[in-house]
Recover the amino acids of this structure.
DNA sequence: GTCTATAACCTGATAGAC
DNA sequence: GTCTATCAGGTTATAGAC
């Protein structure tokens, strides 16, 4: 099939396997994935997978760390930007997630489901909540609403933007096409910031 | 076949298996579950599982239908109650979910994850979005805010109350103990209705 | 109805040729 | 580095005794 002659575009075998692993693990979950599926998807042999990564679990871990970073790492720069207001940050966060999740619709359900199943705790490797910590965002929130628990506040925002993707099978049935789902998410880009501003205003 | 003397024992064993299946499937997911695990959890033999339910998949389907009903069926009576106001319905829904989810914390991630993995489409058996349809709730919302898309509105509410349970592994690390997590959810019982009222008031 | 034993198949991982 | 062939162990489901 595909010949490996390209030295400029680094389509290394290792990367091909990783890319295949991303696809298959995301689609079938860790337990539902067979290493054979990944090898086939990568267009290589099963033995080669074990040559590059030593086991199914090690390959999974590589993919999982990446995915967690993609899902939560997105927050950090925005939360700590001293040049934007609280209201601006909310608009930015909602749109960052809308963009990223429309491109990776099953990222949240994959990551959160596998985290929940907890095949060995690599929860220890990553602390997304520390992003919040003493961020500029939290300070700005405290200045405006000292009574508001930052975690409760952020849960509200993330829940509103991420939930439709987690419950996508339900929403797809409720509204029909993929296009309609995307339209709904795009409508939420304006809706959620408006809602959050209302929440911040009312004691 | 015509014998009815052992009906009670039969029902009891069948229920024991079902209960074990609920536990193990929820904890490990469909693909991660071995029928042996269920048999052991039920305190019976593996062969007996296949005697009552014909296969792993059939047993799973029984459990899954139940779980979906538990997660979404809870909405219907409240949404269609003509004796409560819109504001009252919101308080009721948030507290119904808080109660139910504190008792079944991994119900949402289980159902939504398995729906997403979609091992054969039994999505066709169940249409939770039809609960919304022409409900009293939607009529009340339309009377108050004709501009508000009911699906967007409900997504917001459900997202805010369900999301912490779906992202529970993250939240647990952020706030420490199980007790602290429960306290956070209990705080949300008052928080979310207040927020939703603010959303409804502000155009 | 309930068990033991086993069939039939699947899956992760490795040995060894090229 | 990459392949084919295969091993060792695990998994669902069933046959057959009680």
């Amino acid at each position: 099939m595909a010949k490996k002659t390209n030295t400029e575009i680094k389509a290394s075998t290792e990367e091909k396997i990783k890319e295949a692993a991303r696809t298959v693990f995301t689609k079938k979950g860790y337990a539902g994935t067979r290493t054979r599926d990944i090898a086939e998807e990568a267009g290589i042999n099963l033995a080669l997978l074990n040559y590059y990564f030593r086991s199914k679990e090690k390959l999974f871990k590589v993919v999982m760390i990446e995915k967690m970073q993609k899902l939560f790492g997105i927050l950090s720069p925005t939360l700590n930007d001293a040049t934007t207001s609280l209201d601006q940050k909310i608009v930015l966060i909602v749109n960052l997630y809308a963009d990223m999740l429309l491109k990776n619709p099953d990222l949240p359900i994959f990551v959160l489901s596998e985290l929940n199943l907890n095949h060995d705790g690599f929860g220890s490797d990553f602390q997304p909540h520390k992003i919040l910590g003493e961020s500029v965002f939290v300070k700005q929130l405290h200045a405006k609403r000292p009574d508001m628990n930052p975690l409760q506040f952020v849960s509200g925002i993330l829940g509103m933007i991420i939930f439709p993707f987690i419950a996508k099978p339900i929403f797809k049935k409720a509204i029909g096409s993929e296009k309609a789902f995307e339209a709904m998410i795009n409508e939420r880009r304006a809706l959620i910031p408006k809602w959050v501003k209302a929440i911040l205003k009312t004691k």
In short: Confidence is low (pLDDT under 50) at residues 1-8 of chain A. Residues 34-36, 46-47, 49-50, 54-56 of chain A lie near DNA strand C (CB under 10 Å from a C1'). The two ends of chain A are 63 Å apart (CA to CA).
